[in-house]
Here is the input.
Amino acid sequence: MAIILASASPRRRELMKFITEDFTVKVSDVREITDPDLSPEETVKSLAVIKGEAVAGNCPGDTVISADTVVVLDGKILGKPKNEEDAFSMLCALSGRTHEVFTGVCIIHGGKKTVFAERTEVSFYSLSDEEIRTYIATGEPSDKAGAYGIQGKGCTLVKSINGDYNNVVGLPVSKLYRIMKESSAI
Amino acid sequence: MAIILASASPRRRELMKFITEDFTVKVSDVREITDPDLSPEETVKSLAVIKGEAVAGNCPGDTVISADTVVVLDGKILGKPKNEEDAFSMLCALSGRTHEVFTGVCIIHGGKKTVFAERTEVSFYSLSDEEIRTYIATGEPSDKAGAYGIQGKGCTLVKSINGDYNNVVGLPVSKLYRIMKESSAI
Here is the structure.
């Protein structure tokens, strides 16, 4: 009975170590298709289930953890920026405002599936164009949903958060730990 | 005109790198004496000033950054635990409740001193005695104010925060960055 993290994200791997050192990483390249009519919360839960089930099919009896994170402004999901101008538009939109980050988590353990989503509010300072350009030049936005990484230099953009910090990084460690304990997965 | 971080904390050093890579660390072993009648906010500001002035005296013309962080429950400052039983008492007191973390920062630059304090609320899950003992056994609480480290395994104890996350780690990076920009210190 192994614990498997079904995520390629190095950030999730680091966070998972706060729960247990005893896990392996397996990733499937399943197609991540969602219903555009779903709410952001339902979207991340649905994507976490798709990722988890794809790995669990090959690992019967193991515990599989999967997750998906999105950045949401005015009810709309911001993905990863396509290029620097796209990153600029996203950061302009987030500037001086509060947005939401949702991470959906799926735990497949002992023939049961537990799915939840955690929500954190993130408030940005008002950013000058120059500050946004300087941040984009660090290269950090390119592979990040919403074009920022709160665990990197992107922390200088953030005024405050309300909720679980690690949920913004990509894994709500504290709630996941509690659910895994309750279900005797750890 | 160098930038000097007047703190021995490896966590503050890591956070300072989000503002600039171009700084050195100098620490004075000044006695940290405060007036017990001061509020927690005034206490951290006063300690930051004491630490900063002690280093600035030997570095005229340089920019000196210093900081002090405290954990506050019911208006009372929780220091570092004296031993495991003390850590147990502190974590029992924090369990299921919301406390405050204040970091005071002093910036000495161009003959001027700028001092501010940042406040973050931290809410803990209700913790079982067994969970507290397991956490203490990791050794993490021993050198931490309030007997926990939010950037380590202590994150599993925390339900949510309200404010700047890095302020809890020990340096309100975002606000410090903004003040240093405004005063042309970076």
Remarks:
- The mean pLDDT of chain B is 95.
- Chain B touches chain A through 23 residues (CB under 8 Å).
